[in-house]
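REQUEST FORM: STRUCTURE PREDICTION
Request ID: SP-0412
Submitted by: Lab K.M.
Chain count: 1
Length (residues): 232
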Amino acid sequence: MDIYSYLVVQQAPYFESGDIISLHKPETTFGRKSSTLTPDISFNNIFVSRKHFTIFLQSNNIYIKDLASKHGTYLNDKKLNPFKPVQLKTNDKISFAKNLVVLSFSLRDFEQTSELSILNIDNLAKTEPKLDFLKQTLHIQHDTISLTEKEFKFIDILLQRKTFISREEIIEYVWPERQITGSNEYLVGNEEVNALIYRLRKKLPNSIKINTIRGRGYTLTLKEDRMPSVSR
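STATUS: Completed
RESULT:
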């Protein structure tokens, strides 16, 4: 069976609640970035060790292992013993940095993941979001939202794709003028992309959500507003 595993951020500094950290590598190391070490997933906090813990695949099972971190790694509120792997199960809670960071583990096979994607597409059809290219606005249910040019392009490509889109594709579509002549690279930093997403999240209603798949890209989730309309 093909396995797809990921973490859902419950709370963490510089992350949005609901952000997804994909565990697509055979081993993913978590820790604090330094001048000599860059972990796969970094958390800039004094209570996070440079090498804090790792999550890895072994014999078709997913394990977590604390790397002798100073302040410990907790699985379902129980402190892990250093260098002793423990198998992860769906909905397991991982916490560290004195509970400043709380993550939820999820494990799916690709058939389940495909079903989830189809459900999101069905939700898109129900809400029927529309873009007005002339007025540069987004219309969703009872809301009309004015967008900047870059915000408009970001939402446009997410609606076109409906499922996952990579950060590189976002940059290519939203900032075409930033391409370096004669190469496939663009002069757009992560801070600029993150700032754009932050502004969009502040503007969008609760019925539309931009999900971050950490280190990979983004998805768009829409849900039907079941609140009754108010007569005016």
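NOTES: The chain is about 25% helix and 35% strand.
Reviewed by: T.R.
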